Amino acid sequence: MRTIVNLNIRSTMVRMIVRMEILLFSMSQDATKEGVMSISRRLQNVTKKDLLRFFLIVVFSIIFSPFLIALILFSIIGLFSIIGMAYEIVGIIYDFYRDQNIYFDPFITFFILTTISCLGFIFIYKTGDWACNIFLRLGEKYVSRRGVKDKEI
Fold it and tell me: Are the C-beta atoms of residues 29 and 47 closer than 8 Å to each other?
């Protein structure tokens, strides 16, 4: 069992290394002419636009990681507030049939909490969608400018 796990880890590492090689290979301007180059040679051929693109990816990933956590929290809060709202509706109907005083305060509280969490979820989801579209456009411009074809492993 341990050897199977080790083989899976090794194959994953090999795939990651191959992907890094393809990325570095596609980043060099004269990759099609010279073939496989050493890493130091590839790093010498990195342009300012390559560094700017890498910097943008790092900055956006640092910025949008908390948004992903907030998206998960908003969805959990929204789920529990919807459950609480349904519970309060059942309680209001039960109190109405028993001719007791009906209190809408908990229902309104859960309704406001549900609304805020849904709006937060939609806002963060759309912001991430816009960011992904921006990166796709940047990638298309980058690939078409450099003449590099997409490669899959």
Answer: yes
Place of tokens 């979820």: 121
Which residues are within 8 A (CB) of 26 and not within 5 positions of it... i.e. 6 or more apart? 146, 148, 151
pTM for the full model? 0.45
Distance CA 18, CA 25 (A): 10
Contact 125, 78 (CB under 8 A): no
Digit-coded pLDDT (tens) for 84-108: 888 888 888 888 888 777 777 888 8
Q: Looking only at Cα atoms, what is the longest distance across the chain?
A: 86
Q: Is 37 helix (H, G, I), strand (E, B) or coil?
A: coil
* C-alpha–C-alpha distance, residues 95 and 101, integer Å: 7
Tell me how far apart the alpha carbons of residues 96 and 86 are, in angstroms, rounded to a whole number: 15
How far CA 111 is from CA of 25, 44, 63, 74, in Å, comes to 54, 58, 30, 14
- Residue 53 dihedral angles phi and psi, to the nearest 5°: -65, -45
